[in-house]
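Section 5.1 Outputs to date
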Amino acid sequence: MATLSHTERWRDIDALDRAIVDLSARINASTYELLVLIREFDERAGWLKWNLESCSQWLHWRCDLSRSAAREKVRVAHALKALPEIAVAFSGGRLSYSKVRALTRVATPANETALLAFALSTTAARVEQRCQQMRNTAPDAVDAANRAHARRTVRVWKDLGRGTVTLTVELPVEAGELVCQALDKAVEAADAKGPEFEAESWGAQQADALVAVARTYLSAGSGEGSTSSTADAYQVVVHVDGEALKGEEGRSDLAVESVKRLTCDGSVISMLDGSDGVPLNVGRKQRTVPASLKRALWARDGGCAFPGCTHTRFVDAHHVRHWADGGETSLENTMLLCSSHHRLVHEGGYQIRKDFQGRWYFRRPDGRAVPRCGYQPEDMIDEGGASAEAPKENADQPRRSSVMPSMPLSIRTGSVVTVNPMR
């Protein structure tokens, strides 16, 4: 094999450098075209065709973007409409998306020219820093600080296989600095105890410091509190005849379909009434979906099972065939649905059916299937045309990650629905 000379090798590197830079410029221009399309799609509310709540949710589902990245794409797309100079530079490939994303947070028609000149002459990191400094002096900076304060949170994830616990903490900058200083002080105190601590890595020292801070707090007798069960803290009592749940003539405090939605994932108390309406016998409260089944549902669905939905809060366990109609409370007959899509299924005319492979899919009131990854052109029909049977090849039940969130499943977990099986 022939070897390249030193000059030839550097010439090839120069050509590679040029090719990468040219391709990056084309990617920048293509990203601008993408944002223009996203803006038009959002302005025309195209995401409503899939019964989603926003354009960013549609992007997350349809284009495999993270939710934060999808929200930023929509924000930048609309901001560029009022910034023609930045838009032109972006469309020509002279600005990267990273720079444009930072510029659109602070740019106005008054300062656009100066900011563009600065962005074209420096790095993306410095553009980000300059824009952040400008945001800190804006009148709404206090609102951003309040939002950062409101987002403070601690997440705990236990890995029993490795025998570890992972803590993820999000704090405002000043609060985070305070915690870091406390950890540094704890590390210094540990170093003073002996030279054996010098062999530990910086990360291990920080972890030990966090444990030391917690132990110090507990040893002082602070932070102790009582715990109590809150399973029955939120209750909604609805009276309905057993006959009404089965589709027969009867009485109900709410629409029967609404009661069925509530009892999909609520507690049920059977009550025997006399002819004068006085309760004769009250049975024990029973939870129609046990905790073990809910854990299995979360492991399988990971959140709302409706295609394109990303909700993991306020999620109910839905009986595909309701237990009042003889449906089993089993993994095969239940799925997780957020409160919005749960209502669509019960009160909105949506149906859940199985395709030829035995997998669940959703069907709209007009009979059209809701496929897993959005509609294809061949699936669409004329506005005045009659809808055909749901195409089986597009009927696909989404499967989510097996990670089980630690937040409460639903605000309806403790709700109580009283069912009168006999008159």
